[in-house]
Amino acid sequence: MVIHKTRLLVTAAVCCATLVLGACGGGGDSDPGPSSGASGEPVVGGQGRILTLSDPRSLDPAALGNAYATTGVVGNALYGTLMTDSAGEIRYSMAESFRTTDAGATFELRLRPGLVFSDGSPLDAEAVKFNWDRLKDPATAAISRSEASMIASAEVVDDTTLKIAMATPVPKYAQAVLTSSMNWIASPPALEKGPQAFDANPIGAGPFTLRSWTRQAAMELVRNPRYWDAPKPYLDRLTLRAALDSSQRLNTVLTGGADVAIESNWINIDKAEQSGLPTNVIPSGGGIFLALNTRRAPFGDVRARQAIAAAIDMDALNQAVYNGTGQPVGTLFSKASPYHSDRPLATTDRARAQRLLDEIAADGKPLSFVFSSVPTTDGKAIAENIQAQLSGFTNVTVRIRTIEVTELAALRTTHDFDVLISSAFFQDPEPRLWTTFHGSSAANLSGLDDPALNESLVTARAAASDEERKAAYDTLQERLAELTPVVFLAQAAPSAVSTRNVGGLVQYGLGSLQPEELWVQN
Question: Whole-model pTM?
Fold first, then answer.
């Protein structure tokens, strides 16, 4: 048996789509079939056991995040995908095309004819419009509202055609669709029955359907016989289980207790590679950051934000959290990117940090804040290390508050936090940077609304050349460094690890695993 162990090294802005690792295709007409892991042809049948990084709070697509760390595999399993990406190319699955002829002012989505939900009802353009309109509705509390809100209006042309007009031109809007929950279409009548009924019986058009779900335990899925892309899925059954402890996650795969683990920890990736396990990593620009809530004290004061950025020693954090295997974020783009700027996003300067903290204290209120951290291995280690580093300064107090991963989604809407961990990682920066940092974006956790920063993002979006985009992103990086709405900590590690007998380990977008491609050779 040949073991394929790959860590692809691709710069952040080489292509406008996320590389699919371990295979050349992600479904659709040109899919060459799965590779990575087990050799030979795909094996049909059997069960796959996947460890995830979090439990979903709901099976409503609006409540699921389409990324490696936010149960993207659940959305892909239950609802399928309109499109994916690979090596800089959009790959169409349930959609036949998604095109613009006017530089992103309008788009036309064409669906494959004959698509049906798992209950046999049609998945048509009206269903897509219903789902996308619903994501825009503030009452829905959708994770992907920012992406859906870029649409000004949608018109159903016929059963397979939907035309949309954008609020402002977004030439690369396909990236917003495939990296968000817009990529998942659920049955409108099922959604209208309410959250409790939908969670008990979610109706989608994905490769699997729900058999059972015990919260905080396991989700059992079975093959959808009506899935459009036969003979996929190759597996008859899937069991999904969250494993928040990184050591437990890797050990479970090493000992054969799971077939695949969705991974985020650089230490685990390094150990898996040393053990000869198939390992996929999607390199990207940007990374994981501390979001500092500028909407309220204490981080409404730019001095407080600048003090935190100057105080943190990133090399020390890398050693404490990742045993030195992580990759710190010095600049927003890698040196190989056409948008690279040598200006660092932050520089450790303990003397400056203490001076700023003393200034704030002299105004009558020493810096004190709550760090809201999820109970994952990485999350706890980051929070504890930053707390320990800041304890070496005077006039600053940090309290750690542990929250569940599901609560994190609520904080994105209520903004009731001082500091929390989030991310902005990408292959192409558009539209990810816009949704993360533009003042009008619902996904802007820091809440910073700076005219110059906003203008740089708008200019980059509409730029006709790399030179024009670079100039705009230079301004963005300058404003981020000066205003410090976030503090980048490390490059993200959107990845998956499997046992040697697994094939079809395929990811797209922001590391979203495609379960229809998986097969297990016993």
Answer: 0.79
